Amino acid sequence: MTPDESDPLPSPFVFPDVAEAVSRAIDKRADEIIRAADAGEPPVTVLISDLGELIGEGIYWRNAERKIKALLTPAFETAGKKRVGLTGLAFGRCYRRTDAPPICPHSATN
User: Fold this and answer.
1) The pLDDT value given to residue 56
2) Which helix (H) or strand (E) holds 94?
3) Is the dihedral of CA 65, 68, 74, 77 positive or negative?
């Protein structure tokens, strides 16, 4: 894991207003994010309805992924990736509960 994958803080190249919008969307959709993670779907897709028109660069989606990971840890662990097809983020992380078997079809442990 590279340092930027584990760091939930925004990059210095992320505009503060966009970073704030990402944080607000994650707070607003926290329950949906957890349900998506439980279902083996990339939680980042939950944010498309709130941020899809605002975010057009991968750095912002990757920042959202870092913040989602921080929200889900330690109850979840990364379990692979699925195609999401967002500009700058072709694949989104899938998760599984730390005490549950893998639920993502692209899991490294499957």
Assistant:
1) 80
2) strand 89-97
3) negative
